[in-house]
Write a structure and sequence with these properties.
Layout (H helix, E strand, L loop, with lengths): L2 E5 L2 E3 L5 E8 L7 E7 L6 E6 L5 E3 L7 E6 L4 E6 L8 E8 L9 E2 L3 E5 L2
Amino acid sequence: QVQLVESGGGLVQPGGSLRLSCGTSGIIFRLATMGWYRQAPGKQREFVAQTASGGSTNYADSVKGRFTISRDNAKNTVYLQMNSLKPEDTAIYYCTAKYGPLSPQGGSWGQGTQVTVSP
């Protein structure tokens, strides 16, 4: 059974930082593309960042230069370091895993962690 468990969300002021973690089980982590999506109230789920099995990374334009995705294959964990946070980053952040290209409809998903950026 595949399980993805996110942690690290919370309330932070604009300009602050948070580090999200996603621990996994039930998948061959080193072979999976790992990613983060987010969903703000009233909006569709959107792509944030991904790291492929080979270690390459890709980011949404809105987070480039501020967010960094990384993976630790020994710990079966993926991270999202978020710096210079803005109010528009407020959303539920979801971890996802898939063998192959990520998509909002496929793969395995965590339960999400809330990130709120507010003064």
